[in-house]
Amino acid sequence: MAHELPPLTYDYAALEPTIDAATMRLHHDKHHQAYVTYLNAAIDKHPELAAKAAWELLLDINALPEDVRTPIRNNGGGHVNHTMFWEIMKPNGGGAPTGAFGEQVAKDFGSFDEFKKLFNDAGLKQFGSGWAWVVFDNGKLRILATANQDSPISLGFFPILGNDVWEHAYYLNYQNRRADYLAAWWNVINWDEINKRFEKAKKVKK
Question: Which domains does the chain carry?
């Protein structure tokens, strides 16, 4: 079965002023669609891969056929990463983290402000295109960054949350001010969805 672009569950303008409608249209309809299109093109060359979910393809990149390994890494990663990205944002989101995830943040980082500072720093220092992530590792939250569309799934982690620091995610509104984008992004966080992902992350065996 071909992979498909998941529809947004909110309007393109719903995350303004943090993320403008023009960026959302370009990011979702063009960039994410391109990842889906090229992922499907790679899979068409190896029909035995068609039954796998996109995230399953990322579990062991080196096990993929060599001729499609890089396209699936890039485009499968882009598809999985962006699907999560739309889900962990919502209109009228933000505020302090809630539930079990909020408790874990306080336990591991001392405060939400310290957690945000370290996460934003990871995103700011990611050279070129990439992502900043939060995963659950040995009973603690861990912040890491990956280049391009590489996914924590390929490292054995289930991503709890991640912020896209490719320029296409913010450049129309923030230009070269990545730090401003990272700071503003917390205003659209969907803590309910992140708590659901946190529960899944705790079940992953490394």
Answer: 21-87 (1.10.287.990), 99-201 (3.55.40.20)
